[in-house]
Amino acid sequence: MSSAHYLSRVRLRKDAPAAALAEVFLPEDINQRVTIAHKLLWTLFSDGPSRRRDFLWREADKGLFYILSVRPPHDAHALFDLEPPKEFAPALASGDRLQFSLRANPTVARKTDAKRGKRSDIVMNAIKPLPPESRAGARAAAMQEAGMAWLRRQGELHGFAVETLRVDGYRVLRPPHRQAPMRIATLDFDGTLRVTDGAAFVRALTAGLGRAKAYGCGLMLIRRLVR
Fold first, then answer.
1. Do residues 210 and 56 touch, judged by C-beta distance below 8 A?
2. Domain-embedded: residue 1
3. In this model, does residue 114 exceed pLDDT 60?
4. How far apart are CA 193 and CA 196, in angstroms?
5. Sheet containing 220-224: order of strands
6. pLDDT by residue (tens digit) across 91-100?
7. Which of 28, 119, 174, 205 has its Cα between 20 and 30 A from that of 106?
8. Domain, as residue range, for 188
């Protein structure tokens, strides 16, 4: 992504014609909805067959999305209510404290025969060594411990230190795909952090954290804490 970015809040319109297609655009099945949302939001930015995705997004509520993009969204099909995009150019310095919210697809690379193997979601990776009958009971603790460890590693790489953290919302998505079946595990992270490297942190914010960014993961929303 380039240096100029825009933060937008968009909602699927509730009047015609979008309302007539609400059941198609917003199905109850979360696996279908995340796939359709990806395609819907792409209509705001895809201006040619060679255009590559240059935005992050997150569904905040059913039909309500936050988007961080290089270009302002353009609703050529009148499907959304668009609030005026806000320029996203945070001036952050070491020592700044922020409140944050993040939905991410945190993964770890499993090693096989001393080689880097397939990626696994961090919760399943933590409970897999346990007997099958013990895994469900250990999932909540694994979510907290593995989630905290993953986000702290991200901070070491990307210029921030976690101060307080709540991890929840573990969910496994299986969006329909033309090729091999997809499995995307997501976690929600909410808390406070301290910036340790402003430039590195801003780069991470605009690039996104973790994987599965095309499916609503990786966008960290921030707010300054009052001194």
1. no
2. no
3. no
4. 9
5. 160-173, 184-195, 97-104, 220-224
6. 999 999 999 9
7. 28
8. 97-224
How many domains is the chain partitioned into structurally? 2
Last residue of some domain: 87, 122, 154?
87
Find out whether 13 and 19 touch, Cβ atoms under 8 Å: yes
Q: CA–CA separation, 53 vs 42, rounded Å?
A: 8
Length of the chain (residues): 227
The answer to whether 105 and 208 have CB atoms below 8 angstroms apart is no
Burial class (CB in 10 A: 0-12, 13-18, 19+), 77: exposed
Among 87, 118, 133, give the residue marking a domain's end.
87
The model's pTM is 0.88
Helix axes 132-158, 198-207, angle to 10 degrees: 130
User: What is the C-alpha R_g of the chain?
Assistant: 19
pLDDT greater than 80 at residue 125? yes
